[in-house]
Design brief:
mainly alpha, 0% strand
Length: 289
């Protein structure tokens, strides 16, 4: 056991150096700020497109309210009611726009996907430039498939609620535990798909799973710390008053993108450190740069 630890220890130390060097090289704090800004611009168009596509499928019409409650209660840690109210009003106003206005909102939603694509491919050291038709097809697939996947996940979550209620009768506490894990599993699945599908190269499934697991842990921890900070030190409410939800939402989106990019860097660092054909040359090159 000690011999095995002596062999692994240098690799873990090298992994730490590669991970830190990668984060510095890619300047993830600046990239997260850029993505947070684009996200706030694209949030309303993306939600509007999502609900519009879901309304085309009768099976998903009844889950819209459940979907809104699930997202805002589990992934917006503070002021979820206020954000939910504003988003609903914005989406309602946007739905009254003409064809040209809706098309412009759709382009803004595609802008977010494009920026995420370019940022992650830069982290993976790959070119995100594809033929324009192929790129548009991928982005459109994301726009159309994401609402169906979200709607399906909410339906599955509703099914799990029934199973958890049944399990609660025989094993008290188990149902509550299972329900509490649903948001974490949902976030982990989203991270896994993001790290495996977006890069324009083959990503090891195990590496992506480890990166998704670390990102999920960081996301849940960040959510708890962020909630504690906002509720214990309400400086935003004192300074901004009714507008406090704006900086709070921006800060949370920024921290969320930090977590996403850290998970991506973690996944790449595993590949650079432990892959047999890159373990000797690539980590040393990155660490030295």
């Amino acid at each position: 056991m000690q011999e095995r630890w002596k062999q692994v220890q240098p690799q873990l130390f090298n992994f730490g150096k590669v991970f830190i060097a990668r984060c510095r090289q890619d300047n993830i704090a600046m990239s997260a700020g850029h993505l947070a800004y684009v996200t706030l611009l694209s949030l309303v168009p993306f939600i509007m497109v999502t609900f519009t596509i879901m309304s085309a499928f009768p099976a998903f019409v009844s889950v819209r309210s459940k979907l809104e409650h699930f997202i805002f209660s589990n992934f917006v840690p503070t002021a979820s009611d206020v954000v939910h109210q504003y988003m609903s009003e914005f989406v309602g106003n946007a739905s009254q726009m003409g064809a040209i206005g809706i098309l412009s909102l759709l382009m803004v939603a595609l802008l977010l996907i494009s920026n995420v694509d370019k940022t992650l491919n830069r982290i993976w050291r790959t070119q995100s430039d594809r033929p324009i038709v192929y790129t548009f097809a991928i982005y459109w697939m994301v726009i159309t498939l994401t609402p169906m996947l979200i709607g399906s996940s909410v339906i599955v979550s509703s099914y799990l609620v029934g199973i958890a209620a049944f399990a609660e009768e025989y094993t008290p506490g188990l149902g509550t535990f299972l329900l509490s894990m649903v948001p974490s599993f949902t976030a982990m699945l989203a991270f896994l798909i993001l790290y495996m599908v977006v890069p324009n190269r083959r990503v090891n499934a195990v590496h992506a799973l480890l990166g998704a697991f670390i990102a999920t842990l960081a996301f849940e921890g960040t959510k708890q710390v962020f909630t504690l900070y906002v509720t214990s030190f309400p400086s935003y409410q004192l300074i901004y008053g009714a507008l406090a939800v704006v900086p709070i939402l921006f800060l949370w989106v920024y921290l969320s993108w930090i977590v996403v990019l850290l998970g991506a860097e973690f996944t790449c660092s595993i590949a650079d450190t432990f892959d047999s054909h890159r373990a000797e040359d690539e980590p040393r090159k990155i660490a030295e740069e």
